[in-house]
Amino acid sequence: MNLKHSRQRDSIKAFLSTRKDHPTAEIVYTNVRQSFPNISLGTVYRNLTLLADLGEIARLRVGDGVDRFDYDTSPHYHFVCSECGRVMDLEMPLMEHLTEAAGKSFEGKIEGHVTYFYGHCNKCIQKII
Amino acid sequence: MNLKHSRQRDSIKAFLSTRKDHPTAEIVYTNVRQSFPNISLGTVYRNLTLLADLGEIARLRVGDGVDRFDYDTSPHYHFVCSECGRVMDLEMPLMEHLTEAAGKSFEGKIEGHVTYFYGHCNKCIQKII
DNA sequence: TTAAAATCAGTAATCGTTACTGTTTTATTA
DNA sequence: TAATAAAACAGTAACGATTACTGATTTTAA
């Protein structure tokens, strides 16, 4: 299966590159439709999955039942607002030692960890006040 | 809305208390059916959600699209086998400092974190060899 | 024992995602 | 440039986990 070029895939990737808010497939879909009015949701899903498998984008799961996608594939942590569901990047160093620490007391091979933080984002705190 | 006693709910909780492997709703369903052959899957879901909301059990999400449930509500970490999907408890101390570290560089309030580890469990390693 | 409310079983609906199908694009080779 | 094979497409159907609905049954308290 050789990869062929596709304008739809380009457009999906181009859109993702403009966003830092980790959009869902649905959001990618509604936005890419501005350039490709006939694009199908299935095409969006297929290409997001393909790009993620190729390592060109990252797939994010933060427990709300919806997959999100990130143009920034460098390892970093995320924050999820419990109020509005927004997902934001965190500027903090990677905790590689976590994986080691977990391995100490475990029979089997630990290869990595998934972590996200939750709480209330700035905007939601101000709304409540 | 006052809570009323229900034998089905008792049975669900009793089953969960016997298991350390974080069963899914489907697994709870097939097992509780041995005592309640007519119990409905909806009843299982409703009661699992209710018990989780009451804090009597914990709901677990490890990114495989299926909710799991844990009778042990004390905070602890989990391991997920990438091969067979098994979810196991990890005997390691809580990393409370993670939440602090994340808060340092973030405008908003961080209240906690979700972490799980992945890799290959003992059984799957032995199968491969 | 009765009556109101919670819970139930059974089933339909929802939602995110994946799979299918016949058509269109892309890339290659002539 | 034209012909061809394979990849990708649009549109739609199917899927799996979960939730919502409905009329019947249990529970609890009076």
Give an overview in words.
2 copies of one chain form a homodimer. By secondary structure, chain A is of the alpha+beta class. The first copy, chain A, folds into 2 domains: 7-70, Winged helix-like DNA-binding domain superfamily/Winged helix DNA-binding domain (Arc Repressor Mutant, subunit A, Orthogonal Bundle), CATH 1.10.10; 78-128, Dna Ligase, domain 1 (2-Layer Sandwich), CATH 3.30.1490. Chain A is 37% helix and 22% strand. In chain A, the strands form 2 sheets. Chain A has a 3-stranded mixed β-sheet with strand order 4-3-5. The first copy, chain A, has a two-stranded antiparallel sheet with strand order 1-2. The mean pLDDT of chain A is 95. Strand 5 of chain A pairs antiparallel with strand 5 of chain B. The first copy, chain A, binds a DNA duplex (30 and 30 nucleotides) through residues 1-9, 24-26, 38-43, 45-47, 49, 65-67.
